[in-house]
Amino acid sequence: MAEALSERNEVLVKNLKPAESTPVPTLREIIAKRDQLTESTGHYYGVTELSLRDSDPIKYERFYAKMHSAVLAARESARFVAASPGSREMGESLWGLATAEGDTLAVSLGFLSHTAILPVSIRYMANNDYDVNDGIDDGDVYAVSDGLTGGVPHPGDFYTYVPIVVEGEVVSWAVGINHLMENGAPVAGSWATFSVDTFMDGLVCPPMRTGRKLKQESWWKAIWERRTRAATMNILDDKMRLAGCAMIHEAVHKLIDEFGMAYYKRAIREVIEESRRMILDNMKALLVPGTYNGCAFRLVRYEGLQNVWSHANKNTLIHVRASVEPNENGLLLDTEGSSKWGYHSYNATPGGADCAVFLGMINSFSHNTKVTAGIELAVQRHYPVGSIYNPDNEYASNANLWAQTVALNSIGFNAVSRATYSRGYLEESFTIDGNWGAFQGAGTAKDGTSYGFTNFEWLGGTGRGAWCYRDGEPLVWAAWSQIATIGDAEEFESTVPPLFYLGRKLLKGYFGYGKYRGGPGNSAVHWCVEPGQHLALTRPNGGLSCTPSVGLGMSGAYPGPGSFMISARGTNLDELISEGETPRDATELLAMIDEGQLKVENLEIWKTDCPELALKNNDLFVDAAGSSGGWGDPLDRDPMLVIEDLNTGMTPNYNFVHEMNGVVAVQNDQGEWQLDEQATAEKRIAIRRARLDESQTAESWWHAERQNVVTKNFKTEIQEMYAQSISFEKFNLEFCGFWQLEAGYSLEAVES
User: Fold this and answer.
1) pLDDT, position 2
2) What is the spatial distance between Cα 377 and Cα 42, in angstroms, rounded to a whole number?
3) Against a cut of 0.90, is the pTM above it?
4) How is 628-684 classified by DSSP, letter by letter?
5) What is the pLDDT of residues 592-642, one digit of tens each?
6) CATH number belonging to domain 68-258
7) Which helix or strand (DSSP H or E) is residue 565 part of?
8) pLDDT digits over 265-301, tens only?
9) Which sequence spans correspond to the domains of the chain?
10) Which of 147, 352, 369, 693 is deepest in the core (most CB within 10 A)?
11) Which of helix, strand or coil describes residue 603?
């Protein structure tokens, strides 16, 4: 009997115990399942049927609309809660929602391509057992600015992640991103242009918890105050990112309450799979099979400009090489043949390279579908280990990768443009350039207050390249954002107290010429007034006037001219102001110097990124950027368009277009240019004849150039560039095959 009672009690106790729940999966397990199902089925997360969408499309779209409206509202609200001018005025920010694995579900307006790198941080946290060792709770706050562990393009961009946790399981992440005004590197500003390794990149942090319950820890504020020069601006941006994430966090919890967890998990996977399928359809409709090659070059001028790091005291010519190859799974972007990483600030991590590549991919193929991780699944990327896009040195700097990875985007984007042109989609075919500019620096006010800054204006809006049927336009294009805006001058004057605008204009004639010309770039003149104890600035360009932004003019046109800057120190500006005449752009400044009106003790024209320039009272700093390329042979341009540009002043130099476009014109008594049709026709015939007379056969050109290759008759920077590129097998085969070189041909990197 005792045994029977014991058995009965055991049953009762067993029945009283709560039912064993299914263990909460770890992030590592969640990601492994996602990868296994996606790879084995060829569909995101193994979703072969869009069952929720097909069974009740209204409910499905209502679900996504609520999700999307949450991230849109986050951007439009948070940047007016607290933000720096770069985030509030110019939209250098983005909010998004991602799956537990980090795959993008919905994004706001802003720089869209950052969505491609959200999984990098999450996978790093998963692989390092953040959720197991430390725990990840609902409403925790994580900060990321590291390229290697977080995929962040450069340390000037800062990410905030907030996990959305239900019953102990991470089900999604709210993300806020923005570009800082200053990130605490030795070179002040957003891009440490003379950084030789990551220890000079500024405030770089791997994914780290900085707050709980949607509130930052007290020590986090001290980090901004002690490690950056623009602490006030950065703290405002940090509050902005978190405010937007808090809005998304609340909205998603409500969404799960309304639709249920089972529906939520299934729906978010269908959303990504649906967009992946639509993107593949778009690629098949827009692309023509084949291989689209492109190249660009970027000079890194360090020799003699910094004397701290002897191993980095050299000039480097970066070779940006890429091909776009459509295939049954979407397309492959292959960068094999690009330069190796170096001791400079222009390296990239795979995440940073993705951030550039997906600028064009999202704009080209996600135009009629939801912007999700579906685009990432349709674009395969090859970044060879050891290359500038995948350094095999974990301490390589990526402080200013944007200066050359935007060219990588231009290559990919232009490949798509060429394909759409081949398909007959004329309105989608235009020349893509990412020829941005900005300046940055630091100062100490008269009372000893220190500050740092970045002026984003020429990053916010650039000239759009020519279409295949009409001219490009100024300021309406920013490859990295759907909203081109250069911001208000007053905002930047308040950010940099000693600098005032004397002028802010389009720079006439500053574009790529062709049958249709590119949109003109921009120029501004900044006047230094009572700088206090100290003011110094640098300028990190997206393009240089010594190398083209891309190595290809569309259909025979010229690429846009690169960025440049002018420093004019020790001037007689007081005299000019008293006379009411001051320069308003780069052209006017140089003309006034040539005419003797403006006297300058130290005039420097910078065609590469400049070292820190100290400014004193009445010194001038002039910048120019944002030009774009043309489309078609300049000799095919409608002569009346040339006349129009002459009469509006958009082309200020008749002698130049006389030779470039072969147009003959005369001015009437009112100073208006009038076309001489007969002389123009004759001039164009003469130019074409001269082209033939000056040309040589492809065979003779090949033999002459091959001799230089065989004898290794290269400049130092070019020889090192080719030595690096041919160290990769694919480019080696192309290079040696084209020049028909003997087996074993090699080039040695030249020691500086």
Assistant:
1) 45
2) 10
3) yes
4) ---BS-GGGS-HHHHHHHHHHTSS--HHHHHHHT---EEE-TTS-EEE-HHHHHHHH
5) 999 999 999 999 999 998 889 999 999 999 999 999 999 999 999 999 999
6) 3.30.450
7) strand 564-571
8) 999 999 999 999 999 999 999 999 999 999 999 999 9
9) 68-258, 285-625, 634-694, 698-739
10) 147
11) strand
Percentage of the chain modeled with pLDDT above 70: 96
CA 401/CA 350 separation, integer angstroms? 11
Q: Tokens standing for 184?
A: 């605490």
DSSP state of 228: -
Retrieve residue 459's tokens: 């990053």
Q: 618's torsion region: left (phi>0), alpha (psi -120 to 50) or beta?
A: left
Contact call for residues 498 and 443 (beta carbons, < 8 A)? yes
* 435 backbone dihedrals φ, ψ, rounded to 5°: -90, 70
SS3 342: coil
* Dihedral (CA of 714, 715, 716, 720) sign: negative
Residues recorded for the chain: 752
Burial of 720 (0-12, 13-18, 19+ CB in 10 A): buried
**Backbone phi, then psi, for 227, in 5-degree steps?**
-115, 0
The label of the residue with tokens 């191993």 reads 311
Q: Which 3 state secondary structure label does DSSP give 266? A: helix
Structure tokens belonging to residue 127: 């692989």
What is the spatial distance between Cα 408 and Cα 335, in angstroms, rounded to a whole number? 9
Tokens describing residue 643: 């006349």
133-156 residue pLDDT tens: 999 999 999 999 999 999 999 999
Q: How many CB atoms lie within 10 A of CB 186?
A: 14
Q: Show the tokens assigned to 181.
A: 């005004």
Residues 471 and 464: their CA atoms lie apart, in Å, by: 9
Tokens of 469: 């049927």
Residue type at position 554 = M
